Amino acid sequence: MPAVHDRGGWPTDDPIDREEHEWADWERQTQSLRTVLDRKGFMNVDELRRGIESIGPAEYEAITYFERWSASIETIVIEKGLLTSEEIDERAKALRDRWGYPS
Predict the structure, then answer these.
(1) pTM of the entire structure?
(2) pLDDT tens per residue across span 28-81
(3) What is the DSSP string of 5-35?
(4) N or C terminus of the chain: which is more exposed, having fewer CB within 10 Å?
(5) Domains and CATH numbers, the chain
């Protein structure tokens, strides 16, 4: 049985959304973070994919492309002991407070 991320080739009558969209700053930052982690040898694209594929079906369906990347990156840096979940939460809160974003 294919998993939720195995969509290639599934028949559907739904049209493909080919609209371009302007990348949000956080999407660019997520792309940049993935690139830095890869170039520094902390994470590769296969690990990113494994992290994405480990997201449960309900969450996978509810989040965007770059939110999946972000969730995968968080999982990997925690698994590798680069940061703890608490450190990530603290840094995210500090950034939200600094930039005035809601929690």
Answers:
(1) 0.80
(2) 999 999 999 999 999 999 999 999 999 988 898 889 999 999 999 999 999 999
(3) T--TT----SPP-----PPPHHHHHHHHHHH
(4) N
(5) 36-99 (1.10.472.20)
